[in-house]
């Protein structure tokens, strides 16, 4: 370890890099970090860098909530250790390299609040059962001139949605983005001007879950840096105005065994892929508590925005929270995947992937059978029609999300008792903050947090 870290540090120093940023995401999906000088990398790789244990109970507004039993005092320190296999130079921030961090207790033992370790555990538990997950994110974000206080008063593009013309004025930024994604080892599937206000979307190629979560953090950093150096700033927040389409970070997953994609099939998934999907569907309300957990997340999940609002699945149905994307002769059978739409930047990507993986694998183990897919938008149905088809509204508040989370037989165990306690406390703190505030203020307060 020391040898590898020393060699890496030497290479970085020779390339002009001065510091290594070690990043993780907190329970609000907000990236946090420490920078160590390149000369300190080898030491950090072994002993870690000290950070307060209270990051587990930071809320979205940087308020530490002591209103919980698990970390009730300001005392305590954990060690943040860079994951060296993922160390990269940052093309857009030339003096820096970047690595995701793992948190361990001060004595080096497991720290139950480390979100990356939660995902590591789920990946390894799934591997023990013979399953592998592939995951890829779609990232939507709104662009505005640097120094903007909101998006609406100076949108970074004025559409039309999906138009090449919308992006002309962002040409230098887009060029830098594509270059820096490539240089940072991130693989872009495609990029376009999205439907929302000043919105751009890019997709990341699918990879194993840990890489997908690490890369999602690195992608944010890369986009922020490219925007900043071109006089722009971006918002990844779930909502950028109370009314406009929000920023979804849809999560595409496929589940594999023995090199075979179980979601592949002739237009619909085979039995095990269907059981995976049924597992996600059963846990959907609890999953949203993890994958779309902020106050603006719940506001984003409205009917008619392709963001999803009701619990059901469909084949290529853009209103479905679970959109089955089939393979085909053209794109290949292995292209098949499920898109989870109630997913956004306020989710911790490690926890989101861990919860999704556990819910899907439970579905396979229990041989669940999903109901028939729905091709319509249940938002246009009467309440009685929805009731008769078993289609329920996804949780619309933190309280409803919390109730769904605690009713789940699977998701709480994924987090474990301590992290679950911290996570719920943080959600409660956010909800209390938002309780008497108008939606405009809530949206504005989240705009630049992610
Ligand atoms: N912006 C939509 C959302 O909030 C998604 C639009 C789409 O990609 O279909 O998730
Ligand atoms: Mg989109």
Structural class: alpha+beta
Helix count equals 14
- CATH fold name of the largest domain: Creatine Kinase, Chain A, domain 2
The coarse overall form would be globular
What is the CATH superfamily of the largest domain? Answer: Glutamine synthetase/guanido kinase, catalytic domain
**Quick one: CATH class of the largest domain?**
Alpha Beta
- In CATH, the architecture of the largest domain is 2-Layer Sandwich
How much helix, percentage-wise, in residues? 25-40%
**What is the arithmetic mean of pLDDT?**
97
Bound molecules: glutamic acid, magnesium ion
Largest sheet: 9 strands, mixed
Counted up, domains total 2
The termini sit apart by: 32 Å
**Alpha-carbon Rg, integer:** 21 Å
- Record field, number of beta strands: 17
> Into which percentage range does the β-strand content fall?
15-25%
- Extract low-pLDDT stretches: none
Provide a descriptive summary of the structure in words:
This protein is α+β, with helices and mostly antiparallel strands. It has two domains: 2-111, Ubiquitin-like (UB roll) (Roll), CATH 3.10.20; 122-446, Glutamine synthetase/guanido kinase, catalytic domain (Creatine Kinase, Chain A, domain 2), CATH 3.30.590. Helix content is 36%, strand content 20%. It has 14 helices and 17 strands. It has helices at 2-14, 41-47, 115-128, 164-168, 171-183, 209-228, 271-291, 295-300, 349-365, 383-388, 398-407, 411-415, 417-434, 439-446, and strands at 19-25, 31-37, 49-52, 77-82, 88-89, 96-105, 131-145, 188-193, 199-204, 232-235, 251-257, 260-261, 310-311, 313-315, 322-325, 337-340, 392-393. The strands form three sheets. Strands 7, 8, 9, 10, 11, 12, 14, 15 and 16 form a nine-stranded mixed beta sheet that branches. Helix 6 packs antiparallel against helix 9 and helix 7 (271-291) runs antiparallel to helix 9 (349-365). The radius of gyration is 21 Å and the shape is globular. 53% of the residues are buried. Glutamic acid binds next to loops.
């Amino acid at each position: 370890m020391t040898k590898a870290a020393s060699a890496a540090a030497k290479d970085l120093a020779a390339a002009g890099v001065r510091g290594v940023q070690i990043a993780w995401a907190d329970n609000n999906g907000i990236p946090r970090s420490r920078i160590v000088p390149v000369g300190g990398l080898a030491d950090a790789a072994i002993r870690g860098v000290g950070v307060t244990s209270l990051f587990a109970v930071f809320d979205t507004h940087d308020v530490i909530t002591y209103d919980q039993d698990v970390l009730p005092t300001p005392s305590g320190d954990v060690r943040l250790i860079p994951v060296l296999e993922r160390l990269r130079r940052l093309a857009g921030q030339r003096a820096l390299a970047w690595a995701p961090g793992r948190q361990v207790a001060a004595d080096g033992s497991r720290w139950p609040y480390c979100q990356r370790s939660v995902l590591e555990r789920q990946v390894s538990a799934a591997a023990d059962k013979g399953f592998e997950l592939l995951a890829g994110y779609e990232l939507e974000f709104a662009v505005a001139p640097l120094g903007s206080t909101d998006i609406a008063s100076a949108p970074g593009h004025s559409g039309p949605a999906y138009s090449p013309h919308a992006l002309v004025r962002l040409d230098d930024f887009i060029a830098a983005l594509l270059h820096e994604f490539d240089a940072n080892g991130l693989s872009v599937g495609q990029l376009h001007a999205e439907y929302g206000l000043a919105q751009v979307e890019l997709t990341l190629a699918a990879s194993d879950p840990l890489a997908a979560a690490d890369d999602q953090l690195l992608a944010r950093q890369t986009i922020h840096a490219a925007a900043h150096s071109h006089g722009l700033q971006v918002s990844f927040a779930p909502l950028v105005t109370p009314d406009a389409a929000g920023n979804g970070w849809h999560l595409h997953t496929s589940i594999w065994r023995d090199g075979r994609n179980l979601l592949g099939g002739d237009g619909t998934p085979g039995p095990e892929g269907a059981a995976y999907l049924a597992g996600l569907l059963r846990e959907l309300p609890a999953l949203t508590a993890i994958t779309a957990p902020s106050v603006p997340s719940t506001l984003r999940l409205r009917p008619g925005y392709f963001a999803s609002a009701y619990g059901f699945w469909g084949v290529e149905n853009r209103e479905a929270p679970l959109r089955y994307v089939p393979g085909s002769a053209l794109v290949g059978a292995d292209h098949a995947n499920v898109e989870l739409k109630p997913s956004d930047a306020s989710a911790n990507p490690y926890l989101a992937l861990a919860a999704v993986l556990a819910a899907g694998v439970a579905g396979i183990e229990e041989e669940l059978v999903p109901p028939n897919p729905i091709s319509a938008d249940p938002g246009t149905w009467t309440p009685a029609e929805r009731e008769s088809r078993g289609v329920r509204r996804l949780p619309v508040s933190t309280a409803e999300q919390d109730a769904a989370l605690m009713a789940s037989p699977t998701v709480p165990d994924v987090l474990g008792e301590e992290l679950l306690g911290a996570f719920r406390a943080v959600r409660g703190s956010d909800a209390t903050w938002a309780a008497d505030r108008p939606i405009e203020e809530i949206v504005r307060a989240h705009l630049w947090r992610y």
